[in-house]
Design a protein that fits this description.
heterodimer; A: 193 residues; mainly alpha; 7 helices; elongated; B: 267 residues; alpha+beta; 6-stranded antiparallel barrel; 29% strand; globular
Amino acid sequence: MGDGSMNWPRIISVFVVAYLAVFAQSRFLFLRHTVGAQVDLLPALLVYAGLCCSLPLVVTVAVTGGLWLDALSANPLGVSMIPLAAAGLLCHAYRDVILRDDFGTQLSLGFAASAGVPLATLGLLILVGADPLYGGWFVWRWLVSAALGAAFTPLFFLLFSELDRALSYRPETTLSYRPDREIDRGRDAHVPR
Amino acid sequence: MSRRPYVMAFGFVLMVALLVLNLPERQATRAKLAWGSVFMPVFGLAGSVEGVVERGHQALLPRSYLARQIDTLRQENQALRLEILQAQSIRQENDRLRAAVAWQQQTPWRLRLGRVIGQDPSNWWRTMWIDLGEREQMQVNMPVLTSEGLVGRVAEVAFARSRVVLVGDPQCRFAAQVGETRDKGIVAPDEASFDRQVVHFTYVPTTVTLAPGALVVTSGDGGVFPKGIPVGRIVDVATNRYGLFLEARLRLSANLNRLEEVWVMVP
């Protein structure tokens, strides 16, 4: 999968996906109308960024994505970036001991991030004096949103893996076959070519 | 693992967040609208694609179905014309009576059609974006409605779009009254309800009787919404926890889950 070394196609694709994720949350309301909660895709994206991208990119995606989300929402501008950055930085800090290619790990990290980020955002909203809607169905919305975020996390890993393959230069591979070390058999085997 | 880069990175994010959160309200709103304007191309693109799909769908509709629709709409149009005639005569009579007793004349509503381009991406608010902005002379606090009833009010205005706070959002509380009995109360969000169509009609005195099914309209108090816009119908009534006032649950007249086009009331 990915590593800390960055390339431009990946940087651009992470930003494009963050942009499209915020747009999709605002435009497509199927989940909100059916299960009563909108999925938050940015925590799942930050899990990917934390595990597979460099530290500056994690910070930039958290700041930019948080600002984009707040700009389309009634949130005070700047309130979403702190929880997103915390999720991304935590994943980045422990990525050497995390099995990032494992499906279960991706799912559980996605669930933890998608559950933790909304809670932290809610806390910050209350702290800055906003009056958000969190009533009797808050737990349901929170769990649904976390479950959906978890489901999207492996999809992000898959998507970026495919994008990496499609957009990045493939590393030059050296063949183990060397004609000068071929063992020739037969009557003329001793004759050099 | 060295913690220093992470502490520095988180400190940087915290600093940016505090800087943005502490902007004066006017600058914060401007920054928010400017930052959100990067989404206008994709909102426009999505609207165009939907339009093309819609036109394609219409082109495929059978002729017999369209003929039936035209027939139905023609009948409906005639019935509405008759109603308008009746309403005009009632209005003229109302104007004469108002003039006779020296009451203030009522100004007719002027409406402007807007298209819904997006909703609030987070789960904490009930707001949406429409494609009318400063270039269409939109202003903050203009009422937004559909033919069924009240939708909300304009909260932020950018050049080509505006954010509308929907009825049921904590930022959209307003005075309303029961259509027939004129008993007044406050429409507020019902945070316990799963259904976005249900809100609270609260602070109604315990001395009055609220009947389920009664229509609640805006009372005109507060200066944002003019009097008489349908809000919803009463579902059930209960006394509040301390027995101080009545609280009714209200099912909104306008379907907030299926909004595609709305009317903005301009002065």
